[in-house]
Design brief:
The structure holds 2 protein chains of 2 kinds. By secondary structure, chain A is of the alpha/beta class. Helices cover about 40% and strands about 25% of the residues of chain A. In chain A, helix 3 packs parallel to helix 6. The chains are: A alpha/beta, B mainly alpha.
């Protein structure tokens, strides 16, 4: 069974206001898929639905053939779907090391956890020097790196990244995107939500474009880049 | 290398600490007045209450106002388990037969009431620990009110609102400080384990904790149950120390006294809880004696009854204003910086070890 993530006709509403109106998409093993769209299009809601933080009113979310919407968030993490939320949500009062270990909170293989700790610290050398520092004392870029590193500590089969470039300096954005591309090359499956459409598309295999809760366009990187409408709407002509 | 060395030093300082504690207890037992001994027992019980409350209120952010209910459960429960059938027949003639004939030793009674309190905590916590912030505080306060009303009405078991008596004076310095050591050790082990990290994550940011894969309810229930266990043990120790109590002994006064000590010590610091409890208990004891009037440098102060509580309240307000994070914040007291300061070779060894590690 390949570990494919499938959303089928997913409807979500927040207190009567429809956020997703029938979203269908899929992410196959090893792919980097990006989800583009303006503010309020439903990108984050899509990720939150996959990770179980919100429940769909209708439709289905399946991973490797299993329906996810009956599971609790921690059970979904146990299936290997790890959500790196928008706004980073690191634990400010805890040290960098404690933050990272919390990513591995469900894992029982101590040796593997230690190996992965070395691995993520090699990905983000900035963090290696700050293991004992509290999360709140990190810069915005370092916090984003910590959030991604923490998600990786869970050894995800699919990594859901929500706006990793939000509010970061251009140089840091470059670093983050380079790491995402490297992770993809190393075989991590990634569903990436971004407003920074041009850069996201540049490293993605495929993409979907969301507009007020519906998918209005999808295709490979080349197809999306060639699409004039998208060019106008999201990439800036 | 440096870690192994640190672990060895840590184990040695733990042993040294235990030896010091034993010496202090011996000193208290043979060299101190009964009054000082009683104060020491009282402080030990308060330490257990504060450290265990810290597990839920401090580390997990489940701000419980209902822990005194678990204390009451420990007090009444252990009394019913340890009293002899004859005493029970005299004081509690309406007890059901199965309970009237139970007569257990102190240790099994302590463990049993602890387990019973943990079970109650799980049952009560399952619905109410889904709440957060002030809602948890109100819901747990509701639990305390329920316990209070049950005690007043379960006359056959508790003598209702009347004073409960007939307990044997089983609590002594050794029992109390034995329990203190077990409580602190357990709390410390939990806090430094994966479940402890999960508890901290729940307090820091529930959304991120869920995203990281923490089962929030389970982490909250764990801390609530362990905390209830030790609170009940403290209640049992207190009951067998004070020997006569009633439903009103387990009400707002003791609830808030423990919360003040917890906040002054620092939410999320075990050593802070211990330090604040010791300091505030001694302060309140000194003030209570001063209430009767003292002669200082030839000047005699008049009797000022109630003084200790007013000063206590002022200390609390001052802390909230000037040091809201408490004595220690959420840090632990550590010997390392002090040792390194007074003994340079140690500091150099640590630095060298650090360089080696890099």
């Amino acid at each position: 069974m390949t570990a494919e993530l499938v959303l089928e006709d997913v409807h979500v509403d927040y207190g009567g206001v429809a956020a997703l109106k029938g979203v269908s998409l899929s992410v196959r093993e090893g792919e980097l898929v990006c989800l583009l769209g303006a503010n309020g299009a439903g990108k984050s809601t899509t990720l939150r639905t996959i990770s179980g933080l919100v429940r769909p009113r209708r439709g289905e979310v399946r991973f490797a053939g299993e329906r996810l919407q009956a599971l609790s968030p921690y059970q979904i993490v146990a299936r290997g779907i790890v959500h790196c939320p928008e706004g980073r949500h690191i634990f400010g009062g805890l040290t960098v090391q404690e933050n990272l270990m919390l990513g591995a909170v469900q894992r029982r293989d101590a040796a593997g956890v230690r190996r992965d700790l070395d691995w993520v610290l090699a990905l983000f050398p900035d963090l290696a020097q700050r293991l004992k520092q509290r999360g709140a004392t990190l810069s915005g870029g370092q916090q984003q790196m910590l959030a991604i590193a923490r998600a990786l500590m869970a050894r995800p089969r699919i990594l859901l990244l929500d706006e990793p470039s939000l509010g970061l300096a251009p140089v840091v954005v470059q670093t983050i995107f380079r790491v995402i591309r490297d992770l993809h090359r190393q075989g991590t499956t990634i569903l990436l939500v971004e407003q920074n459409a041009r850069q996201a598309l540049a490293i993605a295999d495929r993409g979907y474009v969301l507009e007020s809760g519906r998918i209005v366009s999808s295709g490979t990187r080349a197809e999306l880049e060639a699409d004039v409408q998208i060019e106008k709407a999201y990439l800036g002509a | 290398m440096i870690e192994r060395w640190q672990a060895r030093v840590r184990a040695m300082s733990l042993l040294a600490g235990l030896a010091l504690l034993a010496l202090a207890l011996l000193g208290l037992q043979y060299g101190a007045s009964t009054y000082v001994q009683r104060v020491a027992v009282d402080i030990g019980i308060m330490i257990i209450l504060t450290v265990s409350l810290n597990l839920s209120n401090g580390y997990t952010g489940v701000f419980s106002l209902g822990h005194t209910g678990f204390m009451a459960l420990g007090a009444y429960g252990s009394a019913l388990l340890t009293m002899t059938p004859q005493v029970k027949a005299l004081n509690l003639p309406d007890l059901p037969a199965w309970l009237a004939h139970v007569h257990l030793g102190f240790l099994p009674a302590l463990v049993l009431v602890g387990l019973a309190a943990a079970a109650v905590a799980l049952a009560v916590g399952y619905p109410i620990l889904r709440l957060t912030g002030p809602y948890v505080a109100v819901a747990t306060l509701g639990f305390l009110v329920i316990v209070h009303i049950v005690i007043i009405n379960a006359q056959a078991y508790t003598r209702g609102a009347r004073t409960f008596l007939g307990l044997a004076p089983l609590t002594n310095l050794w029992w109390v400080y034995g329990a203190v050591v077990v409580t602190i050790y357990t709390a410390w082990r939990i806090v430094n384990s994966p479940i402890g990290r999960a508890m901290l994550a729940v307090r820091e940011d529930p959304v991120a904790a869920r995203g990281a894969g923490v089962d929030i309810l389970r982490a909250r229930l764990w801390s609530f149950a362990v905390s209830a266990f030790f609170t009940a043990v403290a209640g049992a120790l207190w009951a067998h120390f004070i020997l006569a109590f009633s439903a009103s002994s387990f009400w707002f006064a003791v609830t808030f006294e423990v919360i003040v000590m917890l906040i002054v010590g620092g939410l999320g610091s075990i050593s802070g809880s211990v330090a604040a409890t010791v300091a505030l208990s001694i302060l309140s004891e000194v003030l209570r004696n001063a209430e009767r009037g003292v002669t200082l440098f030839g000047y005699h102060t008049p009797a000022l009854y109630g003084l200790s509580q007013i000063v206590f309240a002022l200390v609390f307000i001052a802390f909230i204003v000037y040091r809201p994070q408490g004595l220690f914040g959420d840090r632990e007291f550590s010997l390392w910086p002090i040792l390194a300061r007074w003994y340079p070779p140690l500091r150099e060894a640590v630095m060298a070890g650090r360089q080696l590690a890099e």
